Backbone:
């Protein structure tokens, strides 16, 4: 399932295998929340830009079109015509992002739909059943993502409840995988570490959840308001307590620099909506830093977004043309920009893997970690 084939310091080079294929790690998972990348990007496009793992959201697909519909259509792979690995988030992040529309109890979370206000209940068992209907390769455990900063006593109680929820997820997940009509009986389960920004809670929680035999473990509840250095400090605190033979996933992170620094701290999996979201607003990544393509200075710029890039946008179009599309409000602007940024992120992790293979990751980190933070 997962093999670490090389290390450099704490950085790990690995191979992850599941029912729908193999992914080389470190890997960035491209976020298709509702079964598509926002910006008119399809599963076929993802193959062209080097995506290895696609990520979709349990809560959103439960609301639309309904996980029962996806199951009737043969599962998410067939529904969106993606043959590679898929990870589904559990709905736990929506416990954070939809705080005004939910109530947390021991049995689970009561939501009011952000679409039409109808009442929804999601607990560990419901999350596992929805993800089983979707047929993803990796199901994430149902958890609570706590805002930062958080009160210590609340974060502690939340950690304890998230652990109890993981125990329930594991029992239901194992049961669902034995059913004869399960969409993907080889679906894996990843547990999630929580604890806000309190190192002692993080370590305690990691020690507890690794007693439950999950297929991988994630660090959740970061990049939700805390300073970047605090995020790095929490990873440093948790990583020594994570099983060395299981994948490590840093949820919802982050910038190109965050990814480089996460790899340096032993992380294998990443995801973030940032590259696609920034692209839709004209913020594009290059190997010299990011640019705002809406700026006037690009009005007559005949260069591609990044002269070293071979994505569909850079192969054919100039900065001037793309800027024109943005100014004119053309949908093509968002599509080409999203393709570029996701291609950049997929290439970033490919170059990180190549550096690890060559034993030169330290040099790669020294050259690019700060450079990629620059805004040109």
Residues:
């Amino acid at each position: 399932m997962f093999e670490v084939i090389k290390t450099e310091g704490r950085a790990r080079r690995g191979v992850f295998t599941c029912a729908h294929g193999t992914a080389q790690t470190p890997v960035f998972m491209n976020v298709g929340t509702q079964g598509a990348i926002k910006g008119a990007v399809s599963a076929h496009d993802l193959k062209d830009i080097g995506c290895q793992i696609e990520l979709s959201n349990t809560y959103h697909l439960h609301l639309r079109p309904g996980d029962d519909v996806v199951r009737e259509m043969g599962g998410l792979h067939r529904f969106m015509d993606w043959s590679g690995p898929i990870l589904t988030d559990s709905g736990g992040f929506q416990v954070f992002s939809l705080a005004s529309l939910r109530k947390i109890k021991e049995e689970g979370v009561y939501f009011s739909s952000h679409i039409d206000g109808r009442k929804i209940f999601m607990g560990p068992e419901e999350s596992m059943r929805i993800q089983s209907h979707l047929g993803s390769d990796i199901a994430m455990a149902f958890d609570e993502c706590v805002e930062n900063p958080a009160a210590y006593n609340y974060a502690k109680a939340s950690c304890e409840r998230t652990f109890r929820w993981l125990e329930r997820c594991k029992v239901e997940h194992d049961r669902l995988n034995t059913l004869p009509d399960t969409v993907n009986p080889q679906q894996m389960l990843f547990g999630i570490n929580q604890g806000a920004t309190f190192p002692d809670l993080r370590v305690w929680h990691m020690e507890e959840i690794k007693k439950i035999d999950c297929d991988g473990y994630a660090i959740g509840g970061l990049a939700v308001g805390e300073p970047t250095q605090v995020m790095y400090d929490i990873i440093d605190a948790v990583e020594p307590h994570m099983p060395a033979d299981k994948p490590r996933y840093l949820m919802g992170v982050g910038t190109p620099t965050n990814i480089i620094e996460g790899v340096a701290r032993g992380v294998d999996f990443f995801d973030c909506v940032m590259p696609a979201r920034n692209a839709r607003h004209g913020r594009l990544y290059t190997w010299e830093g990011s640019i705002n393509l809406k700026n006037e200075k690009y009005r007559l710029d005949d260069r591609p977004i990044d002269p070293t890039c071979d994505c569909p946008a850079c192969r054919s179009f100039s900065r001037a043309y793309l800027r024109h599309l943005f100014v004119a409000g053309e949908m093509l602007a968002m599509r080409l920009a999203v393709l570029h940024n996701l291609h950049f992120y997929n290439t970033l992790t490919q170059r990180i893997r190549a550096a690890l293979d060559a034993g030169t990751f330290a040099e790669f980190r020294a050259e690019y970690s700060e450079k990629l933070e620059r805004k040109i």
About this structure: The chain has a mean pLDDT of 96. Residues 331-358 form the longest helix (28 residues).
